[in-house]
Amino acid sequence: MSKGFIWVCQNNSNTDYVELSISLAKSLKKFNRHNAVCVLTDKNTKISSPHIDVVKVMHTDDSEFHDIKWANEYKVFYSSPFKHSIKLAADMLWTTNTDWWWNYLWQHNLVFAIDCYDYKNQIVEDYSYRPFHKRNILPNIYSDLTYFRRSREVLDFAKVVELLTKNWEQVKKSFLINCHDKLPSTDVVYALAHRIVDPDQRSLVNYSWFKFVHNKKMIHNLSHIHDHENYLMPISDGDRTKLGSYNLSRPWHYVNKKMLREINARIF
Predict the structure, then answer these.
(1) Contacts of 188 (CB under 8 A, 6+ apart)
(2) Tell me, what's the pLDDT at 1?
(3) Which of 83, 15, 72 is nearest to 39 (CA)?
(4) For 130, phi and psi rounded to 5 degrees?
(5) CA 180, CA 32: separation in Å to the nearest integer?
(6) By the number of CB atoms within 10 A of the CB, which of 25, 89, 208, 246 ranks highest?
(7) CA-to-CA distance for 190 and 184, rounded, in angstroms?
(8) Do 12 and 69 meet the contact criterion of CB atoms below 8 Å apart?
(9) pLDDT, tens digit, 9 for 90 and up, residues 11-53
């Protein structure tokens, strides 16, 4: 069974996403036996690493003049070399073995991370910090952990995602309420696309284990803390990553692009 991980890697004026992608690939190969990695990039982003198995260069760059490269996210569905794929984001880190996931995921066409976990390993279903999703009655999808298999149903979903992305100006005015995002946020686009192809949400799979720890202040219930990242003091301890003195046992979406360098600086 052909399976692997894929994500978009494009540098911008602020962040070296190649460095983040290599770190993510290293962590995947450290913990998983099934660890094939493909990254999708542009002609200006040069990637060379033994930890990344396949590099695909896009023929066109829909985000060429965007600092946030969301407009190319739909291309993973068309570009993945795997029959079974898990889409990630470059600013993530693997902290445990997840080979067993495939035994459940392959039975479905499409599985999203619905909700997420805080640093205490508690599931956070409340998305009051995402009022836009609630106002538009969108599922609480986190697109940076998405499984898909090569199928007609997934291609249909991908076509809707592509259309929403390419026509974002019209979509945010006609399909969404109070949307002022200049660029097509992948979380919103995926959620809206799923509402379109499955209005009753009957095919929406919600596995309690197919989620990640999200390093957002509101997720951790630390809105009263000015600098929640220093407060939680993430550190690397051998094979373990600690956040707020808790061992992380799930993929970690650290968000802050300088986080890995800060963690490495704490290693004596």
Answers:
(1) 132, 133, 138, 176, 179, 181
(2) 55
(3) 72
(4) -115, 60
(5) 40
(6) 25
(7) 10
(8) yes
(9) 998 999 999 999 999 999 999 999 999 999 999 999 999 999 9
Whole-number Cα distances in Å, 85 to 6, 39, 58, 81: 7, 12, 18, 8
pLDDT of residue 268: 59
| Residue 70 in tokens | 């969301």
Inform me whether the pLDDT recorded for 196 exceeds 70: yes
**For residues 84 and 147, is the Cβ–Cβ distance under 8 A?**
yes
pLDDT for 144-155, tens place per residue? 999 999 999 999
Query: Average pLDDT of the chain?
Result: 94
pTM above 0.70, yes or no: yes
